[in-house]
Design goal:
Elements (H helix, E strand, L loop, with lengths): L4 E3 L4 E9 L6 E5 L8 E5 L3 E5 L4 E4 L3 H5 L6 H5 L4
Parallel strand pairs: 1-6
Antiparallel strand pairs: 1-2, 2-3, 3-4, 5-6
Length: 83
């Protein structure tokens, strides 16, 4: 899924930068590009409404405004810390 385009309910929002398929904690990290100053946001996998594998697009059931307010991806927090 990394590299797939991500479509909100109201328009294109970015590309998948990372993803996890861990049971109980699946998510995608969306690089929003310039429209939110390059912010990477964390979206639960449950927000994915469908995937178009042939066009490499992931559709999420959130608006751009909702995604803009989603938690920012924090590598240490979300990928684990050695402490």
């Amino acid at each position: 899924m990394t590299g797939h385009k991500v479509e909100a309910t109201d328009s294109f929002i970015g590309k998948v930068d990372k993803h996890s398929d861990e049971v109980g904690y699946s998510y995608i990290v969306v690089d929003t590009g310039p429209w939110i100053f390059g912010k990477e946001v964390l979206l639960p996998a449950g927000t994915i409404s469908r995937i178009d594998a042939s066009d490499e697009k992931i559709f999420v059931d959130r608006t751009k405004a909702q995604i803009k307010n989603a938690p920012e991806f924090d590598k240490d927090k979300h990928l684990g810390d050695s402490d």
